[in-house]
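Input record, target 12 of the design panel.
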């Protein structure tokens, strides 16, 4: 198939464009085949791969993992929508899953963030670099702020070892952490409100 450019000149599709479907099918087949091969080699050499503990817990953990991937994709979709980048949920799901590969290949999640930025720009070329960068950063820091808020809310009900403080007395012992988390949450909420035009 030959594409026609805006100026009328013919543009020959690249190798990836011509074989995109075959490459996607190969990716879907090679990964499970490779995992099956690793298991076969391990068993062939006498290694035990029997799961420790209950198989039911293992199955529940796998189901929870799949559901968490859907939540991650939905969070990315919301972060992009906050910055005015409208991508379908399916597209954000694909971007989130594909970025996991680079998350494990490069340290400190740098590969995952760069992958998300590049894929979002490819899917929405009209979006500005600042909007994409802000959305990706918001998606990265939102879980940290949420975990920090939950941790602060639970401080009155726990005892912190080695600090000599318990229950409500432990909350004032960490004013810097509390103020940092609250400021980060407030800054994020203000950015969303300004972007949405609520102010």
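The sequence produced for target 12 reads:
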């Amino acid at each position: 198939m030959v594409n026609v450019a805006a100026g009328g000149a013919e543009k020959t599709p690249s190798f990836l464009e011509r074989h995109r479907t075959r490459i996607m099918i190969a990716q879907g087949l090679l990964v499970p085949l490779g995992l099956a091969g690793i298991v076969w080699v391990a068993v062939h050499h006498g290694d035990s791969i029997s799961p420790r503990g209950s198989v039911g817990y293992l199955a529940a953990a796998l189901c929870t993992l799949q559901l968490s991937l859907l939540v991650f994709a939905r969070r990315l979709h919301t972060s992009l929508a906050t910055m005015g980048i409208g991508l379908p949920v399916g597209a954000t799901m694909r971007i989130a899953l594909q970025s996991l590969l680079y998350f494990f290949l490069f340290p400190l999640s740098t590969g995952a963030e760069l992958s998300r930025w590049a894929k979002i720009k490819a899917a929405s070329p009209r979006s500005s670099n600042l909007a994409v960068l802000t959305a990706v950063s918001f998606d990265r820091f939102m879980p940290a702020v949420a975990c920090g808020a939950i941790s602060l809310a639970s401080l009155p009900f726990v005892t912190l070892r080695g600090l000599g403080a318990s229950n409500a007395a432990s909350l004032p012992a960490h004013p810097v952490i509390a103020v940092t988390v609250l400021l980060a949450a407030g800054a994020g909420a203000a950015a969303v409100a300004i972007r949405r035009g609520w102010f």
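The chain has two domains: 1-50, 51-196.
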